[in-house]
Every structure is written in C-alpha cells, then in structure tokens.
Design goal:
Blueprint (H helix, E strand, L loop, with lengths): L5 H22 L6 H8 L3 H7 L3 H12 L2 H7 L8 H18 L3 H11 L4 H25 L8 H21 L2 H4 L4 H14 L15
Length: 212
C-alpha cells in the first residue's frame, strides 16, 4: 500500500473517526467491532489498525476529539495575559457551546455511563482523558495566578469542571429541564463569583467527615 502524504493521513484518520462515531452511537461500545467500523468508514480493517491500536484507543480518540482538544488552544495562551474571570467564562462557553451543544459529548457520555459496569475501562478512559486533563490544565493556570491566593487550586479546578458536568447530567440526561430547570448562565455566574470572591479569604481548616 503506497504511503499517504501527511495531509491525506489526516483525512483518512478523520474518515475512520467519522465512521467509528456512527457505529458507536448506533450500536454502543459492546456492539461495535472493527469490522463494522471498517465497513462504515469505507476502509480496510488493516487501515484502521495502522491508525488506532484497538477499539478502546479508537473510542478514546473520539472522546478527546469531542471534549478536551477543544480547550487546548485556550490554555496555550500566556497565563498572565488572560484574566481569571475571562478564562473561567471562556472555559464555560467552550464547554457548553462547543462541546455540549455542537458535538457528540452527551451521547458519548451516555455510552460511558451505561456500559462502564461491563467495561470499566470506559470510565477510567473518560476520567483520564477528560476529567484529569481538564482539571490539570485549569489547576496549572490557577496556580500561576499568585494574586488569587487560592489555597487549593486542584479542588477548585475539580469543582469548576465537576459542576458543569453535573449540570449536563442533571439537566440534559435526567430530565432536569422539565422538573427543576436551572440555567447554565446562573451556574457559571455563581462558580466564577465563588472562586474569585473567596480567593483571598482566610484558610479554612479541613475537618474530616465522619463515616457512620
């Protein structure tokens, strides 16, 4: 098989990912095979394996494409040139507008949640590829802004991303929009307010929660 140019390799990879997305969303993780992906993408199974090691690697690439990759350019900016409120609101805007509204984030998340008991690697994959990386990038930024005087940037980063993911699950997947509607703007406003207004407060003593 002749070697493809770099541009053609990118096109071929996207062709495979597009076919894989269709199969995963139609058949779920368990029902997806490399044979079915190859047929949907119009390529040979050998071609798929030249780009992706296995089905898990293929699914990981889809998750990354739908989520974390959309944030990387924002964090590549000079940390000192982006004000905290601007960055936090831009993060929320990317998450809700680009990831949730325009992508396949919700159906992919349904697969992760629905099939993680049989395939625990899906939950680990999502946590590593999305949650940990997103939290690490925001944590690094918050630590770089010494003027905020945050006592636990890691916890704040997890609360920020975790609250937005929780909003998606409750409002979009568990019928919260019908039963207990809460706008995303209100959530973001309060998250930004809580982070910035409490950034210079005295350190709160950590008290272990007793288990009963």
């Amino acid at each position: 098989m002749p070697k493809l140019s770099p541009d053609r390799q990118v096109v071929k990879r996207e062709q495979i990912l597009k076919g894989a997305m269709t199969v995963f969303l139609t058949s779920g993780y368990a029902g997806t095979s490399m044979d079915r992906v190859a047929a949907e993408a119009g390529v040979s199974k050998q071609t798929i394996y030249s780009y992706f090691q296995d089905k898990e690697g293929l699914f990981r690439s889809l998750i990354e494409q739908a989520t974390i990759i959309r944030f990387t350019t924002l964090f590549e900016l000079d940390h000192q040139k982006v004000e905290p409120e601007q960055l936090l609101r831009r993060l929320a805007e990317i998450f809700f507008n680009d990831v949730v509204d325009r992508g396949n984030y919700i159906p992919l998340l349904r697969i992760v949640i629905g099939e993680s008991e049989r395939f625990p690697e899906l939950a680990r994959l999502y946590t590593q590829a999305v949650v940990q990386r997103g939290k690490s990038m925001l944590c690094e930024y918050l630590r770089s802004r010494k003027e905020l005087k945050l006592h636990d940037p890691e916890a704040i980063a997890q609360i920020f991303f975790g609250s937005m993911v929780s909003w998606v699950i409750l409002q979009k997947m568990l019928y919260g929009e019908e039963l207990m509607q809460l706008s995303r703007d209100r959530v973001v406003d309060q998250l930004v307010h809580l982070i910035l207004s409490n950034s210079d407060e005295r350190k709160i003593e950590s008290t272990p929660i007793e288990k009963h």
